[in-house]
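Example record for the data management plan.
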Amino acid sequence: MNKIVTNDDLINALSEERQKNINNEVAKTIAKWGGKREGAGRKPKSDNVLELRIRVSKKEKEFIDYARNHKLNFDDLMEG
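Corresponding structural encoding:
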């Protein structure tokens, strides 16, 4: 049966210096065109399925923080 000759077999037949040059060029090419990139892949899933974000002014944010810290009951405030 014929043995299949791979690229690795051909590279291993070369001198060590030539092998290093080829491996360095391969590493540069892989770094340039492939491999894992920062921020690539699936985004992490949060526990909250629906995440709402509301844009508010700085003053509104201060009021919301104040209300949370002082445990204001909005139902009582809105009854009048």
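Summary line stored alongside the record: The two ends are 93 Å apart (CA to CA).
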